[in-house]
Amino acid sequence: MLKKITGTIITLNEAKNIRAVIENIQQVCDEVIVVDSFSTDETVTIAEEMGVKVVQQKYLGDGGQKAFCEPLATNDWILSIDADERLTDDAVRAIEALDLESTPYEGFSFKRRSFIGKKEIRQWYPDRVVRLYNRQKCGYTTEGEHGHVATDNFEKLDVDMLHYSFDSFGTLVRKADRFAVNLAYVRYKEGKRAKWYDPFTHGAGAFFKGMIAKGGIFGGLAEWHVAFASAYNSYMKYVIMLELQENEHSND
């Protein structure tokens, strides 16, 4: 059953995903808005053919781009979803059952089941995210590499979203390199500084968290691959921060 919810999707060259994600959220949303960062594939054409609103906007960062969507909505309630995410049938039923007009909550969070190719990654679960929220009461932050809905007044729905994070482990590694560089610069600009030992402690900590604290050790070889990639990502982030600090001192 459709509710007065605006579904928002930010895109860049998502032709392979855009039709499926629009159809997915149209099960619960009476409005869908795609904010596109000037895709060079068929993303915009497909979205327009499906009759949804499409707005072009230069990329403002994850949080900034999602915040840009908010004033475009005609409804107060927004379901923000990435092109590589899908609501499960249980999530659709949970949203249909919500009384959004009288709820005391500002938002609702979902658990995410994440995949690399066809392999579900145990150590990334439950990865809770607030994605359904009242834009009159809260909204996306615009700081940092990844935005989030800034509210503590949300209900944890006991349902999953599916997150097709990466097509392959090769894609994971390529994006991890870029993510480490970008996040290092973001943290440095925020005024954070690294110690000489941070690459080692944070790298080891990331590996321990994935394999032990999150139970990845019981999930097979794919979990080891992900844990090593996470450790490398964390290690290099602090290496780059140290390099930025050294360059700062040299300039002084």
What does this structure look like?
The protein contains seven helices and nine strands. The protein has 252 residues and is α/β, with parallel strands linked by helices. It has two domains: 3-166, Alpha-Beta Complex (Spore Coat Polysaccharide Biosynthesis Protein SpsA, Chain A); 169-251. Strands 1, 2, 3, 4, 5, 6, 7, 8 and 9 form a nine-stranded mixed beta sheet that branches. The radius of gyration is 19 Å and the shape is globular.
Q: Counting H and I runs of at least 4 residues, what is the number of helices?
A: 7
What is the CATH topology descriptor of the largest domain? Spore Coat Polysaccharide Biosynthesis Protein SpsA, Chain A
Helical fraction equals 25-40%
- Tell me the name of the CATH homologous superfamily of the largest domain: Spore Coat Polysaccharide Biosynthesis Protein SpsA, Chain A
- CATH architecture annotation of the largest domain: Alpha-Beta Complex
User: Helices and strands, in N-to-C order?
Assistant: EHEHEHEEHEEEEHHH
Poorly predicted runs: none
What's the CATH C level of the largest domain? Alpha Beta
